[in-house]
Amino acid sequence: MKGYIVKRILAAVPILAFVGVVAFSLVHLAPGDPANIIGGDYAGPDEIIKIRKELGLDAPIEKQFWDWVKRTVRGDLGRSIFSNQPVTKLVGQRMEATLSLTIVGGVLAIIVGIPVGVLAAWKSHTWIDRTAQIYAALGISIPGFWLGFILLWAFAVNIRIFPVIGFVSITDDVFGFIRSITLPTLLMGIGGSSVIVRMTRSAMLEVFREDYIRTARAKGMTERTVLFTHALRAGAIPILTVLGFLSAGLITGAVVTETVFTIPGLGRLVAEAVQQRDFPIFQSLLMLLAGFYVLINLLVDLSYAWVDPRVRL
């Protein structure tokens, strides 16, 4: 088991290195110049050169890369070009909103998706199964931004139960926090649970065809025991896989959600950094997202070994 864990951790190192090279390259190869954006329309060539020197953009590309690598390894994410604030401070200010959306939305997707998927497989070819499949198909096919506007129109504009925009910290007002994240997490939960329903149903149908399931039923075991003790654990590998992808995808999906509901989170920070060519923020957030993806994949790999001992071999 220890060797399995070490191999998975070592496999993450070249992935992070590759992401670092890509993040640095994308910023410097993309069209546009931060110095021109900061200088504005009326800045002259001399002022642009001065700004580029202050930002360190006049140094050779190799030196810029290694300086960035050394700072990142030390935990120094740099400073924003436009606000001149440390990137760590900007990320910390917006971390609560994004974590609140992803955690609550992910939990909602799991507690809805897995039971509905198991029930759909158990009651296959019935109205329950058809209803679950329709829900999953609609949740996957409907664009998130469109569904977000529908939720805003229905529950914030017409009924006025929830606020239209904004985010309230849980430390300021618990009730206001719940109201501010209800619609965004509902949007993320619908999309995530739809994928989980389809994957869980498919995995459980495959397991239900196995001989040991028929043997368990022939021995007189209750359906609850067959479902949750034998079938669900046997079909957990593909379910865990899709849960890992969704957990990582919720972070990147927060860009759309936070934009629709005007929530000051990491998703909007990424969008603003791209628009303004604020490359220290963009590079740092891309590395943080890559690290989060690697961590989620590592946890999923370890859960494989916990669920199925054969994986350890």
CATH topology: MetI-like fold
CATH domain class: Mainly Alpha
Main sheet summary? none
Counting structural domains, the number is 1
List low-pLDDT spans. Answer: none
Number of helices: 13
Q: Please tell me the overall pLDDT.
A: 78
List keywords for this structure.
MetI-like fold; 13 helices; mainly alpha; 313 residues; single chain
Protein topology:
Elements: H1 2-29, H2 34-39, H3 45-55, H4 61-74, H5 87-122, H6 127-141, H7 144-158, H8 174-208, H9 211-218, H10 223-234, H11 236-260, H12 266-276, H13 279-307
Short description:
The chain has one domain: MetI-like fold (Orthogonal Bundle), CATH 1.10.3720.10. 78% of the residues lie in helices and 0% in strands.
Question: What would you note in describing this structure?
Answer:
With 313 residues, the protein is an all-alpha fold. The protein has one domain (87-312): MetI-like fold. The chain is 78% helix and 0% strand. It has 13 helices and no strands. It has helices at residues 2-29, 34-39, 45-55, 61-74, 87-122, 127-141, 144-158, 174-208, 211-218, 223-234, 236-260, 266-276, 279-307. It starts with a helix and ends in a 6-residue tail after the last helix.
